[in-house]
Write a structure and sequence with these properties.
Layout (H helix, E strand, L loop, with lengths): L8 H8 L5 H12 L3 E7 L4 E8 L6 H4 L1 E3 L3 H9 L3 E3 L22 E8 L2 E9 L8 H18 L2
Antiparallel strand pairs: 1-2, 1-6, 2-3, 4-5, 5-6
Helix pairs in contact: 1-2
Length: about 160
Amino acid sequence: MNSTIEIPKTVKVELLKDAPNWENLLKLTLEHFNCSTGTLHFLDNDSLLQLQAQQGIPEFLIPKLSTIPIGKGMAGIAAERRKPVEMCNLQTDDSGVARPSAKDTKVEGSLAAPLMYNEKLYGTIGIAKPVPYDFTEAETNLLMKIGESISQKLNR
């Protein structure tokens, strides 16, 4: 990972805490990227992604995304590929990457990144905007860097 990428100070401060508030860390990350919706999943011992924090997800969808198998939906595919997965407009996507219920979030521009450290998967972080949007390479790299920092915290 490019060490010249600078994590936003507000996010860095949360990560320096002994026990980061994951909801707050996600909120600060979303604010930095000017996103309205996001999720943070951690990998459990059964290789399932378990929801740790969310922002802007409609209440009725929480059960559908509280546990995600590797390979299912944007988060699951990002985890499986160990690479970011981006969608300019989730509402019009027909690639099959996004699950049908994902359209109920009403988000469009979406980015899911694996939480990776030392080539080990720790989970995923997803951010989304309510408008069509192509995330830049710099934005994708920054989200990966934030994911790596979260993973280092989980690795302790």
